[in-house]
Write a structure and sequence with these properties.
Blueprint: E1 5-7, E2 10-12, E3 15-16, E4 21-22, H1 32-69, H2 71-99, H3 104-135, H4 146-153
Antiparallel strand pairs: 1-2, 3-4
């Protein structure tokens, strides 16, 4: 066995080319999880390799069909007409609801919408903050924005 290689006080692990294993590593059989995961990944690659030509053929035929019949253009056009009509009717209904009971219904709906939006924004903010904390991102060490760089660079 070769002596360990030491660089900057750190012992490096040498690769044993004859056995294809790291020296210092026991030659135990891999765990069930290790084998299962490796087998699953290999099978996924085989499946993707098998199915990819068919996906490419399907995508090409869908593209040709779309170019020939212009389905996306028709769907978008009819959708825009539908949304425009619903928007107009919705505005009429909304103004009628807001006018009910001297506008008190409108005020209640407005308060409910504000409460809902605040809850949604607060939940997103808290979730992102906790996610960043889990990932170890420190918000106090954030990168300065371009504007902050410009201000700091002009001094």
């Amino acid at each position: 066995m070769q002596p360990p290689i030491v660089v900057n006080g750190q012992e490096l692990v040498a690769f044993n080319q004859q056995k294809g294993a790291l020296q210092g590593q026991s030659e135990e059989e891999p765990s069930v999880i290790h084998r299962l995961l490796a087998t699953t990944i290999v099978q996924m690659f085989i499946f993707v390799q098998f199915i990819l030509p068919y996906v490419q053929i399907l995508a090409a035929s869908v593209y040709r069909y779309e170019r020939k019949h212009r389905m996306c253009e028709r769907v978008i056009s009819s959708s825009m007409n539908t949304v425009d009509g619903l928007g107009r009717r919705g505005a009429e209904v909304t103004s009628a609801i807001y006018a009910m009971n001297d506008g008190k219904v409108g005020q209640a709906l407005n308060a409910m919408a504000i409460w809902w939006i605040r809850g949604l924004a607060g939940g997103i903010h808290e979730g992102v903050g906790e996610g960043m904390a889990i990932l170890g991102v420190d918000s106090s060490r954030r990168r300065p924005s371009q504007r902050e760089k410009g201000v700091a660079g002009s001094r």
